[in-house]
C-alpha cells in the first residue's frame, strides 16, 4: 500500500508540475496541452469506438508477438544453455543480430511482407525475443549440476531433462525475461504502427493525429494510453511473478 501511495504521489506531483509549467507560459499550450486538457481527451477517446478498435488492434498484436517470442525464446534458451558447444558456435551471429534496432528493419520488412499486422508482429517478436532467451540461458547456468547429473544417471532423455528438470528450475528467470519483453514488445508494436503507417493501432492513431488535424491533445492522449497499458502490463506481471515464485530467492529485478 505504501508503494502504491508513493507512486500515486509521484504521478500527481508530475501532473501538477506539468500543469503549472504550461499555465505560466513556459511552454506553448498549442504544442504541449496541459494534463487538464489531455486527461479529458483521454476520457472522451475511451468512448470512441474507433479509438477502442485501435487499442484492441495494438493489444492483439502485442499478445500474439509475446506468445510467439516465448514459444521461440524459451526452447532456444534451454537448448543453448544446455549445449555449450552450440552456444559458442552461435554466439557471433546472436550478438550480431541482437543490437540491430527494429527501426532499421522496418523498410526491409515492409518490402517483404507489407505494412499489415504481420509486419508489426514480426518486428515485435524480434525485439522481445532476446530478453527471454538470455534470461533462460542465464537460468540454465544457475541450476545445481547435481540435479542434471542425477537425471542423466537415471537414463532420462535430453528432452525430458530440459522439460522436467531444467524448465522448472529456470522458471523465475524465464518469467523475468517475459516481463521485460512484454513492455519491449508493446513499444515495438506501437513504434512500427507509427513508422509503417498501419491502418489500425495506437501508433497509427498518433501519427494521424499529429499530421492530419494537428491535435496535439490527441497525440498526448494516445501516448498516455500507451504508457498506461505498458504500466499495467508490467505491474500485472510483477504481481503475478511474486505469487508464482514466492519460493525463489532470485533477484528478478536485476536480470536483464
Automatic annotation (TrEMBL):
The keyword Transmembrane helix applies. It is found in: Cell membrane. Pfam families: BPD_transp_1. Keywords: Cell membrane, Membrane, Transmembrane, Transmembrane helix, Transport. Gene3D superfamilies: MetI-like (1.10.3720.10). It is a multi-pass membrane protein. It comes from Amycolatopsis bullii. The lineage of its organism: Bacteria, Bacillati, Actinomycetota, Actinomycetes, Pseudonocardiales. Its main location: membrane. It comes from the Bacteria. Belongs to the binding-protein-dependent transport system permease family. This is Nitrate ABC transporter permease. The keyword Transmembrane applies. The gene is ssuC. InterPro entries: MetI-like, MetI-like_sf.
